[in-house]
Specification:
By secondary structure, the chain is an alpha/beta fold. The chain has one domain: Aldolase class I (TIM Barrel), CATH 3.20.20.70. The protein is about 35% helix and about 15% strand. It contains 14 helices and 15 strands. The strands form 4 sheets. Strands 4-5-6-7-8-9-10-11 form an 8-stranded parallel beta barrel, surrounded by 7 helices. The chain has a 3-stranded antiparallel sheet with strand order 12-13-14, with no helix packed on it. α2 runs parallel beside α3. The N and C termini lie far apart (about 45 Å). The structure holds inosinic acid (IMP). The site of inosinic acid has 24 residues, from β11. Inosinic acid binds next to β11.
Length: about 400
């Protein structure tokens, strides 16, 4: 018999809603501060911060040089994908590091995400196989942090990779993951990870749950891991930021993930749709699309075994996402909604959101009530009513 059988189903972000708190002048929409820590830094070391709580997923079809530069300019970051030769990944890292967003303040008025020298912040992904060769190239190219890209981070391979990096490059923070349990978090924290990605089986291109039966609803994963993270912080004084990763589709998902305890989110599909993602637009029927594929898909095959040990079957699919225009427009809209939600909750920043948010599980009928219903809308943007009413 299984060691533990949990009868409470795991939940996803879309099943929760935020309750309003008192909105004050300090938490008015314009005053909401979305900045967040990239990782834990020992006392005396300069912290790396993001002005916005969004990171680009370490994926071939998302985080290339153009997206990483634009993300840094807008105050976020992108994790440069490692499913490519170390040399080309280092080239992308160098390109990003030559950019100085602090010369420019983004139109949203936020400072770009930078290192101590005003250069664009850049995180590079690594795997647990060729790290001994890859990591020195990336550190040499100026990577500010390294993030281990693994679908299941609760492994001795990850521990070994972190130990190796810590010994040779102790000043470079390592982001571990992905994990979805308190045990997984503790393991990576004790191994030396300075931030942890949370999520398994929830990505838009992900078929891990279907193929292997492993995974967890992202909300439940964040809740359990955030509780463990907070206890770990009380015990050790080390606050490890959590990155909610996989399946975040819109502002509701982002603000719910942050309220439940995430410090920033990682997005793939959302960013793959933008002008700055690496692939050219294609016409599919009468729609303009961009290709988007999983790191565990057949398309990423030559690097398949590096991330997914069982190269025998795919853990991701390949498809298209509808082109959505410039990254900035998409992020501005997304974050305007996140700010408005935080303001409604009376929270002026992400730390306050963690301390003060009231989050409630909602019923399926309640979710339906929260959508447009019983109305034939003009314009077609909200056409749910048509679907319900036949
Ligand atoms: P999305 O934002 O819902 O598109 O999810 C992106 C996330 O899915 C990434 O950050 C990875 O954690 C995860 N991911 C990327 N490629 C694959 C894959 O092939 N299989 C399963 N998960 C993947």
């Amino acid at each position: 018999m299984a060691r533990i059988i949990r009868h409470n189903p795991s939940r996803t972000l879309a099943e929760f809603r935020l309750l309003p708190g008192l909105t004050t002048i300090a938490s008015s929409i314009g005053a909401v501060d979305l900045s967040t820590r990239l990782a834990w830094f020992p006392e005396g070391e300069r912290e790396l911060r993001l002005s916005i709580p969004v990171a680009g997923a370490a994926m071939q079809s998302v985080s290339g040089a153009a997206l990483a530069v634009e993300m840094a300019r807008l105050g976020g970051t992108a994790f440069i994908f490692c499913s490519q030769p170390a040399e080309s990944q280092a080239e992308i890292t160098k390109t990003v590091k030559t950019f100085r967003p602090a010369d420019e303040i983004s139109a949203a008025g936020l400072p770009g995400a930078t290192d101590a020298h005003g250069r664009a912040l850049c995180v590079a992904a690594v795997n647990t196989h060729d790290f001994e060769r890859r990591v020195p190239c990336l550190v040499d190219a100026g990577a500010d942090a390294l993030a281990i890209d693994a679908s299941d981070g609760y492994s001795v391979y990850q521990e070994r990779t972190i130990a190796w990096i810590l010994e040779r490059f102790p000043h470079v923070p390592v982001v571990g993951g992905n994990i979805v349990t308190a045990e997984g978090f503790r393991f990576l924290a004790e191994a030396g990870a300075r931030a942890v990605k949370v999520g398994m089986g929830s990505g838009s291109i992900c078929i891990t749950q279907e193929q292997k039966g492993t995974g967890r609803g992202l909300a439940t994963a964040i809740i359990e891991v955030a509780q463990e993270r907070d206890e770990y912080c009380t015990r050790t004084g080390k606050y490890l930021p959590l990155i909610a990763d996989g399946g975040l589709g819109d502002a509701r998902d982002v603000v719910t993930a942050l309220a439940l305890g995430a410090d920033y989110v990682m997005m793939g599909r959302f960013l793959a749709r933008t002008e700055e993602s690496p692939n050219a637009k294609v016409q599919v029927g009468n729609r303009v699309m961009k290709p988007y594929w999983g790191e565990g898909s057949a398309r990423a095959r030559e690097w398949h075994s590096a991330r997914y040990h069982q190269a025998a079957f795919p853990e991701g699919v390949e498809g298209f996402v509808e082109y959505a225009g410039p990254l900035k427009d998409n992020l501005d809209t997304l974050l305007a909604k996140v700010r408005a939600a935080m303001s409604s909750c009376g929270c002026a920043n992400i730390i306050e959101l963690h301390e003060k948010a009231e989050v409630e599980l909602v019923s399926a009928l309640s979710i339906r009530e929260g959508q447009v219903h019983d109305v034939f809308t003009v314009g077609g943007e909200h056409d749910n009513s048509m679907k319900w009413n036949g």
